[in-house]
Design brief:
The chain has 351 residues and is an all-alpha fold. The protein has two domains: 1-76, no CATH class; 104-323, no CATH class. It is built from nine helices and two strands, in the order ββααααααααα. Strands 1-2 form a two-stranded antiparallel sheet. The chain crosses the membrane at residues 108-128, 167-186, 195-217, 237-260, 272-292, 298-319. Residues 27-101, 328-351 are annotated as: Disordered. Residues 80-91 have a biased composition (Basic and acidic residues). Residues 28-43 have a biased composition (Polar residues).
């Protein structure tokens, strides 16, 4: 008669004795060949479970019939998902069920790093083309001519285009960003989130980098205004890249990256993100519409803004990873890149 041994080495029940258990019916022994039915009585045998929580084997693990660890994977490699599994830190890979953790954060940071490098590479390429008078400059004339013909055919759009161009002014873009920085920082600090200050600081640093990079490149390239051969007598440094485009794109984009993680409803988040992208694109198009900048001036500023905004998004991913997993009720408030400030509630009751 073979025995089944418990996790502490004691014998639980003999195989032959198990066949004589009544299962709650007096005088009616259950044979081994009878069909198995669900036991409903308190005297039904209980299969012992090992402390690791893995499946038990039908035979003991010891080679001599003695007590052992009754696991299916004791003497052979596991081929079923019933083998013992051990969790990692809460909120990290290895827990059961799997949850997003460091691996997803690393993938997000890698994607943002690729955006940062691609933006800088395109910005450098366009700068070289404008400085050397490359083939892209000829295409610049063609696109500018199309905008001029469209502006002449639709003069009623000049007013809205001028209003959009003014969004790139420092007096408009900077206060918009500062409002988002103050709000996101206050929400993050009130929530006690670690590294709550990192995304707002990254947004301020990105905006501060705009005049430094744009001013340096403008002085180095010294590109004339559209339709002019030489710079005007006002001593303006140049028109490549567009400072208004870069300022508006960084301000609107950084403000969106700070506020979007605080919004719980996915539809509202998508709408705000689309509005931010469309506004930045409309400002650049309006500058070309009025003849304030060449198309390549605007395109280069968009590339620069993409690189700067990638750093702001990366700061949000780092802050969200440091904050750890969020409660299930607040899980819907996180964005694709992670929580920038770790807000758990809605921006307001209407959102």
């Amino acid at each position: 008669m073979k025995n089944v041994w418990g996790p502490d080495g004691g014998r639980v029940i003999g195989r032959l004795a198990a066949g004589a258990v009544t299962y709650g019916f007096t005088g009616t022994p259950r044979s081994r060949s009878a069909p198995q039915e669900s036991a409903t009585s308190d005297n039904a045998p209980v299969i012992p479970h090992h402390r690791h929580g893995s499946a038990l084997a039908h035979e003991t693990a010891g080679s001599d019939g003695g007590p052992g660890t009754p696991r299916r994977s004791a003497r052979r490699s596991s081929h079923t998902p019933r083998d013992g599994r051990y969790g990692d830190r809460h909120g990290r890979p290895g827990t059961i069920p799997p949850v997003p953790g460091r691996r997803s954060a690393v993938r997000a940071l890698g994607a943002l790093g690729a955006v940062f490098c691609a933006g800088l590479a395109l910005f450098a390429l366009l700068t070289w083309q404008v400085s050397a008078g490359g083939p892209l400059v000829d295409r610049d004339w063609s696109v500018l001519g199309w905008f001029r013909r469209a502006a002449a055919a639709h003069p009623w759009l000049n007013g809205p285009a001028q209003a959009l161009s003014d969004v790139g002014n420092v007096q408009v873009a900077v206060p918009l960003l500062l409002a988002a920085v103050v709000y996101a920082g206050a929400r993050g600090r009130a929530g006690g989130r670690p590294l709550w200050w990192l995304p707002p600081l990254a947004a301020v640093a990105a905006m501060a980098a705009v005049p430094l990079v744009v001013g340096t490149v403008k002085s180095a390239v010294a590109r004339p205004a559209p339709g002019k051969v030489h710079l005007g007598p006002d001593g303006y440094a140049g028109f490549f890249p567009s400072g208004h485009t870069a300022t508006s794109a960084v301000a609107v984009g950084a403000a969106a990256l700070l506020v979007l993680p605080l919004v719980r409803r996915p539809a509202v988040r998508r709408s705000l993100a689309a509005a931010a992208v469309l506004l930045a694109a409309a400002v650049g198009a309006a500058l070309v519409w009025h003849g304030y900048h060449w198309p390549l001036d605007v395109l280069a500023s968009w590339c620069l803004a993409a690189s700067l905004l990638a750093t702001v998004a990366a700061a949000g991913v780092v802050a969200g990873t440091a904050a750890g997993p969020r409660a299930p009720a607040a899980a819907g408030g996180s964005s694709a890149g992670g929580s920038a400030v770790g807000g758990e509630s809605e921006v307001d009751s209407a959102v």
